[in-house]
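Structure ticket #2291
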Amino acid sequence: MSDMNHNNNEQTDFNAVSGEEKLQALRDLIKLTDNHLTQQVLNIGMDPHEEDLIRIEAWRALGMTGSSALLGEILHTAAQLVRNPEEDEDVQNYVLQTLALLPITETEIKLAQEVLEGVPTYWSKERPSLFSLHINMFLVPSPH
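Resolution: structure written out below.
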């Protein structure tokens, strides 16, 4: 048995499940410490062909990665999704919430400032307060 992060201590093969089963498996994740599992969840969060609700649940789980060796990749991917004007708004919102949960350094703070300064027209005109709220949560250094 591993600290596989799944409530029943069994690792789900996310490639072998879909729909409700995949959604439930993501919801059952309580901690992400295994790099292979974290990579699978990150792949789900990045996949524009996945259902938005499943992608959102993947980003919720990624918010629990803490000190994963994949933290840099998660932050980089999150920045790409947030900057993509074609990305689903709900997914972008949850990605921003996930960023607020992850341990950050000065580099990530600079990344957030770059995102804020390069806000797509969509965000700056239609949803300035929501976007600013998420970015401000990200800019506040974590006590870690």
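Closing remark: Confidence is low (pLDDT under 50) at residues 1-9, 121-131, 140-144.
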